[in-house]
């Protein structure tokens, strides 16, 4: 049986022109008209998709796709190229029928934007849909194709059949309602289009069996069955393991940590596991189908339709609660920003522009960076108010020292207050009164969170954040790392960068050259990751003087102290190498070696292999330092992992309660990190000075142990010293003597006080981290004086002075206020001196004139 009535065979290889002419004569003008309609409908669909219009706009735009589809259908009926029943369908017009159904499919997806039976398709599903459409067009050329391409076509066509079978079955529950919907402008007909494509596939498969070969069709049908079966089996197996693991953790006798942390430690971190955890949160499942009123303001903001997830979740489900799954995703899949609690949606927001303005102080080993961001709301509704949330990733030891929000044309600067007051004021204004606030909060892991509200389509919203950062020492170089962020899309974001140095440097390295004015400039697309390097100069002896106190830098010179640990605790996780473990066991001859696995376990030659094999499979570890016996004479050895819980994640657990009770009285525990990576948990304990961490290899550790030495940061006898380890410097606070020679030297930048206060606050919080709200009243004065964001303090901007008074927020007296490039406290530059001298001359000139006027 022939596929088309005028099909032919090619005995010679024709030219492309001949192929085109033969194909055109084969399909006829009606098919070419259908192709033009398909291109027009698809183009209109993509144009509307880029508009980001509202639902009413999508519904209006849908009617053009609908009109094209229904017009071509009536046209085919009128020229008798399409029949109601397949048996009456002329063979030569089968390609026309396929083309017609694809016009209806585009109309289906256009209507889906208004009545979402399907959420946004995943990337792989979009590719498969495009491939299926391409096969439908290729079918019209089938008589012209060589055998190899025909073979490939039938393999693909057999596979494509299951795609439309899936859609037809998925929409089965909508058929009764859709039947009634046909009476309303025929819209209900769209639900049946996948069913018609299933029939089309079956017809062509049947013809292929009769006129070609069954083998490629069988391959095409069997491949999806095998893949789907394998995926469902793997999904079921992974879900069973997760449920079994979760049950085991619940039966565990130790209840120190939440169950989700124990599950996350042992989880198989695969793409199937990620989809299982995101089922119902990010991906649609059979339990939440046809939720036409569902909000997209959940988790990542957009929900996806993935047939793999639907089939897997239909087969079996996970017993872990949504909140616990979100915690695991935050920990293992870097989803903290996406899972932040929202008061308002931000789905229509994008970052329009970034202005980065940085001043680097080489001899002070610090930099001050201002990031000014412009937020655009692309919603078509002029009244649509949305909330922008940004997470800024700061270099180690950095602190936020300024926040501004533009209200109209006016730049309003932030007030510093306790975190609790700032959060309460922001949520009240945003959630109830819906007016203009912004707030920045400190977070663990060198990050801060900025919230801005409202962002409307009427005008772009601007805010500015200022960050004081120490420069990292790498060998002989000082390194400045750009501050990047996560937030509204940066796909079309432009950026202007200006970097200024306060003195000449040697060995400049960077993406952009340093000009003669000691400046770097760039304008173009947003660039999140870039670094600048130069040879480190000597530290400046200058002091910053404020409130009868002087702040001065000094080199950090860690000393080697006599140290022979009585007990060695190994914090084992997947970051460890077996060779390091074995070498440490041999180094200490298996004496006084301990690991923690729900209880302290002593390491011996008999159990070492088994214990390491079990613990090294853990994704992360949370070593209970409060269980360490005689901590001053103990050594903790760890290897970090990037993805791990923070202290805030386990707040309220028995682990946190025990840490709060005992850690405040613990001395700083000597700690060695073997892989130069600190997990968020260990990093926070190090910042709080509960651990004294040094980075070392097992070889260097062996030398130190044999010499009975350990590097201890003995900075000073006085507590009025802040260690900035990344910059290898300390900041000392001393009484200011006005008559001393130091008073005649130029003043250092005020950022010395800001860095000192930040590190000093962390040191004072220490083991009382989980009680930091209770410490706010006693420590807030130090944070307010330096005007910095910390675990106890936040910056907030409100609309009016009355708002500040209502929430008892007062501008700090005798404080540094918001940091700024224009008043950094450094020596005025030559052009600034020129302006000062000119102003003085004008004043003197006006004073000596008889009439007291300038002119």
Attribute tags:
about 850 residues, alpha+beta, 7-stranded mixed beta sheet, 6-stranded antiparallel beta sheet
Sum this structure up briefly.
This protein is of the alpha+beta class and 855 residues long. Helices cover 39% and strands 20% of the residues.
Unreliable residue stretches: 1-11, 290-297, 824-833
Count of alpha and pi helical runs: 23
Assembly state (oligomeric): single chain
- Described by the principal axes of the CA atoms, the overall outline is globular
Task: Report helical residue fraction.
Answer: 25-40%
Number of domains: 5
> Strand order within the widest sheet?
7-6-11-4-3-15-17
Structural class: alpha+beta
Relative strand content: 15-25%
Rg for CA atoms: 34 Å
Number of strands: 31
Mean pLDDT figure: 85
Largest sheet: 7 strands, mixed
How far apart, in Å, are the first and last alpha carbons? Answer: 104 Å
Structure in words:
The strands form 7 sheets. Strands 7-6-11-4-3-15-17 form a 7-stranded mixed beta sheet. A 6-stranded antiparallel beta sheet has the order 8-31-9-10-5-14. The protein has a 6-stranded mixed beta sheet with strand order 24-23-22-25-26-27. It folds into 5 domains: 16-212, no CATH class; 230-332, no CATH class; 349-537, Immunoglobulin-like (Sandwich), CATH 2.60.40; 559-714, 3-Layer(aba) Sandwich (Rossmann fold), CATH 3.40.50; 825-855. Helices cover 39% and strands 20% of the residues. Helix 4 runs antiparallel to helix 8 (193-211). Mean pLDDT is 85; it is low at 1-11, 290-297 and 824-833. The protein contains 23 helices and 31 strands.
């Amino acid at each position: 049986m022939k596929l088309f009535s005028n099909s032919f065979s090619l005995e010679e290889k024709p030219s492309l022109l001949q192929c085109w002419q033969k194909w055109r004569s084969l399909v006829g003008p009606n098919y070419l008209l259908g192709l033009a309609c398909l291109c027009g409908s698809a183009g209109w669909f993509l144009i509307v998709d880029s508009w980001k219009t509202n639902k009413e706009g999508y519904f209006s735009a849908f009617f053009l796709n609908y009109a094209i589809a229904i017009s071509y259908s009536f046209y085919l009926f009128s020229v008798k190229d399409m029949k109601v029943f397949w048996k009456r369908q002329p063979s030569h017009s089968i390609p026309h029928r396929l083309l017609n159904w694809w016009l209806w499919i585009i109309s289906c997806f256009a209507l889906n934007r208004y009545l979402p039976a399907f959420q946004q398709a995943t990337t792989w599903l979009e590719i498969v849909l495009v491939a299926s459409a391409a096969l439908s067009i290729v079918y019209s050329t089938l008589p012209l194709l060589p055998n190899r391409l025909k073979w490939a076509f039938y393999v693909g066509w057999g596979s494509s059949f299951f795609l439309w079978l899936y859609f037809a079955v998925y929409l089965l529950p909508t058929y009764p309602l859709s039947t009634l919907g046909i009476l309303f402008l025929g819209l209900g007909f769209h639900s049946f289009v996948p069913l018609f494509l299933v029939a089309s596939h079956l017809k062509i498969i049947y013809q292929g069996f009769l006129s070609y070969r069954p083998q490629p069709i069988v391959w095409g049908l069997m491949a999806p069955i095998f893949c789907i079966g394998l995926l469902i089996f793997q999904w079921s197996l992974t879900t069973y393991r997760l449920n079994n693991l979760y049950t085991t953790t619940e039966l565990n006798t130790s209840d120190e940590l939440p169950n989700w942390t124990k599950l996350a430690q042992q989880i198989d971190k695969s793409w199937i596991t990620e989809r299982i955890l995101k089922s119902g949160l990010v991906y649609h499942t059979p339990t939440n189908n046809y939720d036409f009123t569902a909000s997209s303001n959940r988790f990542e903001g957009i929900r996806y339709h993935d047939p793999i997830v639907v089939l897997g979740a239909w087969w079996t489900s996970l017993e872990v609660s949504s909140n616990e799954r979100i915690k695991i995703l935050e920990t293992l899949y870097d989803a903290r920003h996406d899972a932040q609690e929202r008061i308002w949606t931000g789905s229509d927001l994008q970052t329009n522009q970034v202005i980065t303005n940085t001043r680097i102080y080489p001899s002070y080993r610090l930099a001050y960076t201002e990031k000014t961001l412009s937020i655009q709301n692309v919603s078509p509704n002029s009244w649509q108010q949305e909330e922008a949330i940004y997470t800024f990733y700061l270099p180690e030891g950095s602190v936020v020292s300024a926040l501004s929000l533009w209200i109209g044309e006016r730049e309003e600067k932030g007030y510093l207050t306790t975190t609790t007051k700032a959060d309460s004021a922001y949520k009240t204004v945003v959630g109830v009164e819906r007016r203009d606030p912004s707030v920045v909060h400190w977070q663990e892991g060198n990050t801060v969170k900025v919230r801005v509200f409202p962002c409307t389509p009427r005008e772009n919203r601007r805010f500015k954040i200022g960050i004081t950062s120490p420069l990292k020492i790498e060998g002989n170089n000082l390194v400045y790392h750009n501050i990047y962020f996560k937030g509204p899309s940066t796909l079309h974001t432009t950026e202007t960068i200006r970097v200024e140095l306060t003195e000449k440097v040697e060995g400049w390295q960077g993406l952009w050259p340093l000009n003669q004015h000691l400046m770097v400039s760039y304008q173009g697309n947003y660039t999140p990751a870039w670094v600048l390097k130069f040879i480190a100069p000597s530290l400046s002896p200058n002091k910053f003087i404020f409130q009868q106190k002087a702040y001065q830098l000094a080199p950090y010179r860690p000393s080697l102290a006599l140290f022979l640990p009585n007990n060695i605790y190994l914090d084992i996780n997947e970051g460890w190498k077996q060779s390091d473990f074995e070498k440490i066991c041999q180094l200490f001859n298996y004496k006084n070696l301990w690991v923690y696995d729900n209880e302290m376990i002593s390491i011996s030659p008999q159990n070492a292999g088994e214990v390491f094999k079990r613990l090294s499979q853990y994704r992360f570890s949370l070593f209970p330092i409060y269980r360490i016996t005689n901590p001053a004479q103990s050594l903790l050895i760890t290897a970090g992992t990037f993805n791990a819980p923070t202290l805030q994640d386990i707040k309220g657990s028995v682990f946190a309660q025990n840490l709060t009770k005992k850690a405040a009285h613990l001395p700083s525990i000597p700690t060695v990190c073997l892989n130069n990576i600190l997990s968020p948990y260990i990093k926070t304990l190090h910042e709080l000075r509960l651990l004294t961490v040094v980075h070392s290899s097992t070889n260097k550790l062996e030398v130190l142990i044999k010499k009975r030495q350990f590097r201890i940061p003995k900075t000073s006898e006085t507590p009025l010293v802040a260690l900035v380890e990344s910059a290898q410097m300390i900041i000392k606070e001393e009484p200011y003597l006005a008559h001393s020679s130091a008073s005649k030297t130029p003043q250092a930048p005020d950022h010395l006080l800001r860095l000192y206060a930040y590190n000093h606050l962390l040191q004072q919080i220490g083991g009382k981290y989980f009680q930091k709200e209770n410490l706010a009243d006693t420590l807030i004065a130090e944070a307010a004086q330096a005007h910095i964001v910390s675990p106890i303090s936040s910056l907030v901007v409100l609309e009016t002075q009355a708002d500040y008074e209502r929430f008892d927020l007062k501008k700090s007296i005798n404080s540094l206020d918001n940091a700024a490039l224009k008043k950094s406290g450094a020596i005025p530059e030559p052009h600034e001196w020129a302006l000062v001298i000119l102003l003085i001359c004008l004043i003197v000139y006006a004073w000596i004139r008889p009439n007291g006027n300038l002119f």
